[in-house]
Amino acid sequence: MKATEVPAIDGAYLFEPTPYADERGFFCRTFDADVVRSVGLDSDAFVQDSVSRSVRGVLRGLHLRSGAGESKLVRCSYGRIFDVVVDLRTDSPTYRNRAFFELSGETQVTLYIPAGCAHGFQALTETADTSYRIDRPHDPAEDVTIAFDDPELAIPWPLPATSMSQRDREAPSLAEVLKQREK
């Protein structure tokens, strides 16, 4: 497994496994504490694993946590997703940068998203399972959502959004969220 910095988002990394394939399929390590530590992250900080299943066109996000934020490792374990990260850390050299990735069950690449970054994704296949490893227990009172179609972000979602939660549909603009955070 190797770790690669994401230039557009300070502190973000891609963890690329080395799959072992044969006639049965493949096997690969999807988490390696030594590799995580090698880039300065605390491998023991992750306290919760979750998974979501989405159908083609489903859009989830853009989400982030208020307060101390939340760091996460995100991997598409089955299917393919279009993944988006927006840096909203005002003290970051990549503040307001966006980065886009295609994550897939074929590659099992894991994306590390630092606390303070918004995250969202869209399922590109009929079924897409997305796994998360999060460094804080979830507190719904800290949930923040930003409009997926905010013109200021101009995210090039590859498909029309076929389904999303009410919270995501009614999310405020980035400008509104940033104004609220200043209070």
UniProtKB/TrEMBL annotation:
Task: Specify whether Isomerase is a keyword of the entry.
Answer: yes
Write down the chemical reaction(s) this protein catalyses: dTDP-4-dehydro-6-deoxy-alpha-D-glucose = dTDP-4-dehydro-beta-L-rhamnose
Task: Determine if Isomerase is one of this entry's keywords.
Answer: yes
Q: What is its EC number?
A: 5.1.3.13
- Renumbered to this chain, region (Disordered) spans 159-183
Question: Where exactly are the transmembrane stretches of this chain?
Answer: none
InterPro entries in the record, alphabetically?
RmlC-like, RmlC-like_jellyroll, RmlC_Cupin_sf
- Which molecular function terms from Gene Ontology are attached? dTDP-4-dehydrorhamnose 3,5-epimerase activity
Job of this protein: Catalyzes the epimerization of the C3' and C5'positions of dTDP-6-deoxy-D-xylo-4-hexulose, forming dTDP-6-deoxy-L-lyxo-4-hexulose.
Family classification: Belongs to the dTDP-4-dehydrorhamnose 3,5-epimerase family.
Task: Provide the assembly information.
Answer: Homodimer.
Q: What is this protein called in UniProt?
A: dTDP-4-dehydrorhamnose 3,5-epimerase
Native source organism of the sequence: Streptomyces yanii
Q: What is the lineage of its organism?
A: Bacteria, Bacillati, Actinomycetota, Actinomycetes, Kitasatosporales
